[in-house]
Amino acid sequence: METTLSRRSVVAAAAAASLTAFAGSSFAQEKVKLRLSSPSSATDQRAVALTSVFAPAVADFATFEPHWNAALFKQGTELEAISRGNLEMSIASAQELAEFFP
What is the pLDDT of residues 13-41, one digit of tens each? Predict the structure, then answer.
């Protein structure tokens, strides 16, 4: 019994093999970066809760980077930084949010 392979079947087999080899790497995505800027200190109750409860809860799919004492953005500029895409999270007061949402 003689087996013949056409060029088309060889190319199709090679393409299928390469797709299968690289299929696993497409599922490995980078973690989401969650940067938080807050004027409060690291010992504030909200800060302690974020670092001890929130950070471990998102550790599987995100990297939590808190910046306390307005070290990353000055107080009052966090919401503009979020709108520009330079920041992901902020602890904003109701007065700050009322400027944007009446």
Answer: 666 555 555 555 555 589 999 999 999 99
DSSP for 21-79 reads HHHHHHT-PPPEEEEEE-SS-TTSHHHHHIIIIIHHHHTTTEEEEEE-TTSSS-TT-HH
pTM: 0.67
- Using an 8 Å Cβ cutoff, are 64 and 32 in contact? no
pLDDT in tens, 40-53: 999 999 999 999 99
Fill in the amino acid letter for 61.
F
Q: Which residues contact 51 (CB under 8 A, 6 or more apart)?
A: 42, 64, 66
Cα gap 72→87, rounded to integer Å: 9
Angstrom distance (rounded) from CA 40 to CA 67: 9
Cα→Cα distances 77→9, 20, 42, 61, 95, Å = 61, 47, 19, 27, 13
Tokens 């696993």 identify what position?
A: 24
